[in-house]
């Protein structure tokens, strides 16, 4: 607990920094809402252009819930600290941070949690309540058990996304300008996590591959659990796969840190 207390100021500082720029927050929220609206009308047009009531296992109402819950899940697991690491490498401030008596990996984790806390309070609470209300309106029930498992799955998703972002951040030790690589990273996440298109709409061979990758574990798995598309023993298998990727990515990150820190060139300062 004492160790956690020493890292909590990093979470608090990130949260305070984000909440202090209200105009910035409003602009980003407007952009997210616009993207959500475009996605909704796109799927509405798709379902409206066919006589089929169910497409790849999704009714239109289920697709609406999926759009909302996958969007909220992607916001909740957002712990993109690769930009912070890259910035510190470019301006040389990483030199000061490395000589401080704190663990760099843990510091980045708690900074990421500051972003999670901000998204949870500012966006998630209200939007999740609306989504749950819509679920009840469409289907006439709410499964408390699935909601609890959903939050457990989100916790594992945060862990996966943090180490994925952390690994890319460590690459900045070798590649100074990370802008292009970060764009590729985000594009891969959006496509393979099921954020843009549910993985159920992929070809069968692509589903098999994508369902095993960590990207789907971060967003698609929690969303499908909430929607009730993953049930019974499949829930345990899905959570187990999330835990597996969290551990694997953590090991990769630690190996990369030990290797790259030896040859880090400090810029700026």
Automatic annotation (TrEMBL):
<keyword id="KW-0472">Membrane</keyword>
<feature type="transmembrane region" description="Helical">
    <location>
        <begin position="63"/>
        <end position="81"/>
    </location>
</feature>
<protein>
    <submittedName>
        <fullName>ABC-2 family transporter protein</fullName>
    </submittedName>
</protein>
<keyword id="KW-0812">Transmembrane</keyword>
<feature type="transmembrane region" description="Helical">
    <location>
        <begin position="226"/>
        <end position="252"/>
    </location>
</feature>
<dbReference type="Pfam" id="PF06182">
    <property type="entry name" value="ABC2_membrane_6"/>
</dbReference>
<dbReference type="InterPro" id="IPR010390">
    <property type="entry name" value="ABC-2_transporter-like"/>
</dbReference>
<feature type="transmembrane region" description="Helical">
    <location>
        <begin position="187"/>
        <end position="206"/>
    </location>
</feature>
<keyword id="KW-1133">Transmembrane helix</keyword>
<feature type="transmembrane region" description="Helical">
    <location>
        <begin position="21"/>
        <end position="43"/>
    </location>
</feature>
<feature type="transmembrane region" description="Helical">
    <location>
        <begin position="142"/>
        <end position="166"/>
    </location>
</feature>
<feature type="transmembrane region" description="Helical">
    <location>
        <begin position="116"/>
        <end position="136"/>
    </location>
</feature>
């Amino acid at each position: 607990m004492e160790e956690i207390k020493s890292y909590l100021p990093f979470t608090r500082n990130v949260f305070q920094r984000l909440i202090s720029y209200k105009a910035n927050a409003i602009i980003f929220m407007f952009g997210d809402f616009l993207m959500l609206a475009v996605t909704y009308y796109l799927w509405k047009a798709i379902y409206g252009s066919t006589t089929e009531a169910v497409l790849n296992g999704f009714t239109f109402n289920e697709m609406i819930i999926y759009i909302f819950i996958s969007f909220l899940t992607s916001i909740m697991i957002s712990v993109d600290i690769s930009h912070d690491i890259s910035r510190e490498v470019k301006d040389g401030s990483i030199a000061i941070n490395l000589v401080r008596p704190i663990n760099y990996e843990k510091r980045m984790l708690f900074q990421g949690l500051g972003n999670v806390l901000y998204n949870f309070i500012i966006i998630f609470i209200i939007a999740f309540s609306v989504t749950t209300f819509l679920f009840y309106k469409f289907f006439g029930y709410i499964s408390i058990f699935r909601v609890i498992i959903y939050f457990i799955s989100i916790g594992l998703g945060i862990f996966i996304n943090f180490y994925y972002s952390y690994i890319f951040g460590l690459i900045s030790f070798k590649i100074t300008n990370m802008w292009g690589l970060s764009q590729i990273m985000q594009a891969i996440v959006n496509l393979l996590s099921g954020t843009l298109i549910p993985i159920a709409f992929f070809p069968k061979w692509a589903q098999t591959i994508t369902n095993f990758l960590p990207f789907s574990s971060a967003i698609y798995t929690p969303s499908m659990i909430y929607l009730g598309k993953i049930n019974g023993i499949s829930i345990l298998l899905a959570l187990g796969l999330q835990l597996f990727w969290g551990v694997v990515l953590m090991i990769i990150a630690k190996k990369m840190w030990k290797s790259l820190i030896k040859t880090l060139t400090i810029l700026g300062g």
